Amino acid sequence: MSATGIDAFDSTLQKTNEWLGQIMQELHWNDRHKAYHALRAVLHALRDRLPVNSVAHLAAQLPMLIRGFYYEGWHPAGTPVREHSQDEFLVHVTEAFLFDVDAHSKDIAQAVFRVIARHVTAGEIEKVKQALPEGIRDLWPA
User: How high is the mean pLDDT in each 10-residue block of the chain (142 residues)?
Assistant: First the structure.
């Protein structure tokens, strides 16, 4: 039975839940809300460090619901930001988990990147990685 009565909505809900489930599995979490915060924080930190064309090309391969929160609050005129180090990238992930002492931003970023890499074409992932500074690129799976 359809959850919404609209196939596109049902499909994006299902795909988004698959991504969240994979993030939970990667991080050994049992909290879907926490997985959503991880995905959102990493996507926003990534988006803000990519050139506008790369942002759009990556977005085209994201499920519709994930694409929506990927773009949420984006200011294309300010991208890419000038922060280039891995530590500066991870600060943005840390900010989503300020009150969670068990959340480790590097582990979160790497887990989310592994999930993204499973669902986005290898060619697009390579383009994204090449658009990033080396320190951030190192967070992606080999």
Answer: 79 96 97 97 97 97 97 93 92 93 94 98 97 95 90
Please provide the size of the chain in residues: 142
pTM: 0.94
Helix, strand and coil content of the chain, in percent to the nearest 5, comes to: 70, 0, 30
- Structure tokens that stand for 132 in this block: 């990033």
Is CATH 1.10.10.10 correct for 7-137? no
With beta carbons less than 8 A apart as the criterion, state whether 41 and 109 touch. Answer: no
- DSSP reduced 3-state for 75: coil
State the Cα torsion 108-112-113-114 to the nearest 10°. Answer: 100
The CA distance from 23 to 76, in Å, is 27
Q: Where are the domains of the chain?
A: 7-137
DSSP 8-class letter at 99: T
